Every structure is written in structure tokens, then in C-alpha cells.
Amino acid sequence: MAGTACAAGLPAGDRLACYAAAFLRFELCIELAVNGLVATVRHGRLVTLHSGACGVAATLAVDGRQLAKRETHLQLRPLLHLGGGIPLLRRAAYSPVVPSMSAQPEG
Q1: Are 79 and 47 in contact (CB under 8 A)?
Q2: Residues 26 and 62 sit within 8 Å (Cβ to Cβ)
Q3: Residue 74: what are its φ and ψ, rounded to 5°?
Q4: Which pairs with CB-CB distance under 8 Å and at least 24 residues apart come from 48-53?
Q5: The whole model's pTM is what?
Q6: Could you give the maximum distance between any two Cα atoms of the chain, in Å?
Q7: Which residue from 39, 30, 35 is spatially nearest to 76, judged by alpha carbons?
Q8: How many whole angstroms separate alpha carbon 98 and alpha carbon 69?
Q9: Tens of pLDDT along 60-72?
């Protein structure tokens, strides 16, 4: 071994000087493709998400060379509640109060 021959003539503390350092760049790419996403909007706020299936692809590469790639399909949680909702409009653009459907006509 080249490293052993180089290190044989050096004092114990200097033996690491014969080894070159190597740097590798690892890359992990994860792609998600959600199919069948349905959003529920109430009073200008996104309140729930209903989802179908999700395709997942993951690729591992070192220094630009692909080492592995895996693909699978997941069944996602069918319903995601978003609490009070996420506003989709500026506050002045909608009224948080919805008029009652049973209101009597003015007369």
C-alpha cells in the first residue's frame, strides 16, 4: 500500500501527512407529485385540504453521478384541517361575516 510505505519512514505524529484528503459532494433530490388535491375555501380562507395519492421519487448522487434512484406511491392523509384557515385575500377584500340565508325581505 502506498500509504503504508510513505508512513514507515516518518515519526508517529507525522504519519497522517502522507494521506490526501478527499471531498465528495452528495446530493439528495426528492420530488413529490400530489394527485387529486381538493381545497375547501370558506369566507376567503383556505380551511381544509383533501388529498389523493402522492408519487415520490428520490435520487442520490455523488459528485454529479447518480448512485441510486427510488420511486414509490403513498396514500396521503385524506383530510388536513388548517384551524382558522389561511387568508387568501387582503383583509379589506372580504367580510368575515356571512349574511344569514333566512333573512326576511325588507318591506
Answers
A1: no
A2: yes
A3: -120, 145
A4: 48/79, 48/80, 48/81, 48/82, 49/79, 49/80, 49/82, 50/78, 50/79, 50/80, 51/76, 51/77, 51/78, 51/80, 52/76
A5: 0.45
A6: 108
A7: 35
A8: 51
A9: 999 999 999 999 9
